[in-house]
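Thread: Newbie trying to understand structure tokens

Hi all, I'm a second-year student working on a class project, and my supervisor (Dr. K.) asked me to get a predicted structure for one chain before our next meeting. I've only ever worked with sequences, so writing a 3D structure as a token string is new to me. If someone could post the tokens and maybe explain what I'm looking at, I'd be very grateful. Here's the chain:
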Amino acid sequence: MTLTNELQQLHTEMRHWRQHLHQFPETAYEEIQTAKFIADKLFSFGLDVHQGLGQTGVIATLSVGSSDQKIALRADMDALFIHEQNTFFYKSHHEGKMHACGHDGHSAMLLGAASYLSKNRHFNGTVYFIFQPAEEGRAGAKQMIDDGLFEKFPADCVFGMHNFPDIPLGHFAVKAGAMMASFDCFEITLTGQATHAAMPHLGNDAIVAAAQLINALQTIVSRTINPADPTVVSITQIHAGNTWNAIPESVLLRGTFRCFSSAVKTRITDKITQLVNGICAGFDVSADIRFNPENAGYPVTFNTEAETAIALKAAITVVGEDCVNQQPIPSMGSEDFAFMLQEKPGCYIWIGNGSSENSCLLHNPHYDFNDEILPVGVAYWVKLVELKLI
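---
Reply by user tm_fold:
Sure, no problem. This is what the structure looks like when written as tokens:
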């Protein structure tokens, strides 16, 4: 796309904003300085700014004309507990934390859109700019909703955008229906009888039971779920024992499952429970199962038809039809923007971050947001507002 002089100047500013945010990453519900930086910029654009929803969330309002139409644009702003291994000058200054998913770029693009639209008011209605905390596993979107997000800012529809490695620079991907899978997690504690490792017959070995259970859980996808229904079940943590010569009393397993329908979700939950109970009975150990501790689950990210059509038109207008994938394969990753889409019709689009070469994958310690896509994202947001608020 060809950049206007105004977008070129804004690109330089956004690059500075993005790299500043990258240097000072803050994790879920601790985005205090991030929120202040964003709020200060929004105030400087002359917008009405509200702070504190979802603890650290920031919402800015821009109204133009007489229409009662209202659109919400959302960016996430939290970082991850990952130790950055990049060496560029703007690498993380916070040990063990980094923007490994591009939320620094998402915030910079939405700030850019707020800046541009505050000066170029070619629309009729109200735009809500939502800067959301705690997307990474802590359901900040749900917290903002529970705190009254859509009562205080009654948008007709809501839109989100996320960068995506290996989608080419200057390209988009979007479709109606499911874009991202649901996310559920589980925690299983197996408790047996501890004993000396030399005398296993005197105890009940929870580790052996856990080993059998881990293997059995892998059959849920391969032998229980219809192959036409994309599903993942993964064990991600095993904790047991603290010495060489003792069989511990208990084993803690944690894991996750992803799918695209409530029926499959129920089937997986039931099957996990059945396998745990059956295997524990066979090994004479007890079990405690907890699904979604700390309310960690996310629903399916589901795009509505009408809003997807508007998003698609905006993306094509910005980059051309050949640069928009209209049938992307849904991702088994998940997004708490899904909670907003349960409350309001809307659309979640992917913007290409370019090649993932040199480990530039999401949630990787070498990841970095591609600053070249900043004006592309702004142009999309602007065109979306102009098409929706006419």
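A couple of things are worth pointing out once you decode it. Residues 5-180+300-388 form a domain with the Aminopeptidase fold (CATH 3.40.630.10). The chain has a mean pLDDT of 96. Feel free to ask follow-ups in this thread.
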